[in-house]
Design brief:
The chain is built from 17 helices and no strands. By secondary structure, the chain is mostly helical.
Length: 402
């Protein structure tokens, strides 16, 4: 689904500076210093203090093109690598969340003790929270294992960990001088010990171990990507090329006999420095920048989904009424339902070629009819066509009557 800024239009998006890299660049002195060099060169040439031709210091347009082309290659290559890493981190963090949810569902199905289920739920959620805390380090006084005291207290207030468990985790981290990721691993280890204590059969325990290994592998991949940053030599070379090229372009644009060249040079700076600033922001997506991952939203979703699964009251013995019967066959050339049924208000609903779709449209626009059908479906004895699941089709109702 496209974001709002992707459909807002080119002009509206370009004029919206909040959240863009331009907002950061316009607060940086680098752009203004280089622009001052450009304006100073132009003023020196304009008022006769400096003549590039007499000094043989002209920069040929081909030379400027060569510099900008080489710099563009380095910047695009650097940005593509950083964005690929950004995408990989996003996919891995989603895998961590989904693996946790799968484990919670397995615990719900195979662990008989309700107390053990709730304890495992707390340990798994605490492991996810601590992993996020570890990869977004907090160096405030009292932080243990890149987890601040405030974050430890949050886990205690959420009743995900007891005070004894927190002290034990902190002891693990401090005694072995562990790197980030150790505390979350210990919580997975405790979860496996708890499963063994609750007499899960060996075959099922092996499946649990495999799922725990998958979860830990995703976490380890995230840690490895965060540890492997761009080499300093490459970043230094890129920064050196960027500064030197911008200085030479400031001189080159300053010798042009046009005031418009100042504006063009300023825009060129914003683009080149903006690409680099964007790459720097994408390199560490665990923070509070606009391009950073919505980690709080993700963790809230995982918390709610795991809690809902563990406290699910659905009974597999509660089967639908016999009146539901078998599913209806969909004829060739027709669809089971309209996947764009919620796009009516946007005016982009696809063309309908069958009375099924037109009837479905009328039903969607008439919520009272839907409510009456749901009520009838809930009480098959009062439903005229109790064996029909798709009663909103006039043609299908005729089939039911026959």
């Amino acid at each position: 689904m496209p974001e709002a800024y992707e459909t807002a239009g080119v002009l509206a998006t370009a004029a919206h500076l909040n959240g863009s890299v331009f907002h950061t660049l316009l607060c940086s002195p680098t752009v203004y210093v280089l622009t001052l060099v450009n304006v100073g060169t132009m003023a020196s040439v304009k008022y006769g203090y400096f003549d590039p031709e007499e000094s043989h210091l002209q920069i040929h347009p081909h030379h400027s093109a060569m510099l900008t082309g080489l710099l563009s290659f380095f910047l695009v290559f650097y940005n593509s690598k950083v964005f690929a890493r950004y995408e990989k981190l996003q996919a891995l963090m989603k895998d961590v969340s989904e693996s946790t949810i799968v484990l919670v569902a397995m615990v719900k199905r195979h662990v008989q003790s309700k107390d053990a289920c709730q304890h495992l739920l707390r340990l798994l959620l605490a492991g996810n929270f601590i992993f996020y805390f570890e990869i977004s380090p907090d160096m405030t006084p009292g932080a243990v294992g890149n987890v601040s005291q405030e974050e430890w207290v949050t886990l205690l207030n959420l009743k995900l960990l007891s005070a004894t468990e927190i002290m034990s985790l902190q002891g693990h981290v401090t005694e072995c001088h562990a790197t980030p990721g150790h505390a979350s691993f210990i919580l997975l280890h405790w979860s496996m010990l708890l499963l063994m204590q609750n007499h899960v059969d060996s075959g099922r325990l092996t499946q649990f171990e495999q799922r725990f290994h998958v979860l830990r592998d995703h976490q380890a991949d995230v840690l490895a990507l965060l540890e492997l940053s761009m080499p300093f030599a490459y970043v230094h070379l890129l920064s050196f090329m960027l500064v030197v090229t911008m200085l030479l372009l400031a001189f080159s644009f300053g010798t042009a006999d046009s005031y418009v060249s100042v504006m063009i040079y300023f825009i060129v700076q914003l683009v080149f420095f903006g690409v680099r600033e964007l790459s720097v922001s994408l390199s560490d997506p665990f923070g509070v920048d606009k391009v950073d991952f919505p980690a709080a939203m993700w963790m809230t979703s995982v918390y709610n989904r795991c809690n809902a699964i563990m406290n699910d009251v659905w009974d597999p013995n509660d089967r639908p009424a016999a009146g539901f019967g078998t599913l209806r066959k969909i004829e060739l050339g027709r669809t089971v339902f309209d996947l764009q049924m919620d796009a009516l208000d946007n005016g982009d609903r696809p063309h309908r070629t069958s009375s099924y779709n037109q009837k479905a449209t009328n039903d969607i626009q008439n919520p009272n009819r839907i409510a009456s059908q749901l009520d009838a479906a809930g009480n098959p004895a009062e439903c005229k066509y109790s064996h029909c699941q798709l009663k909103n089709l006039s043609e299908h109702e005729k089939d039911c009557q026959t």
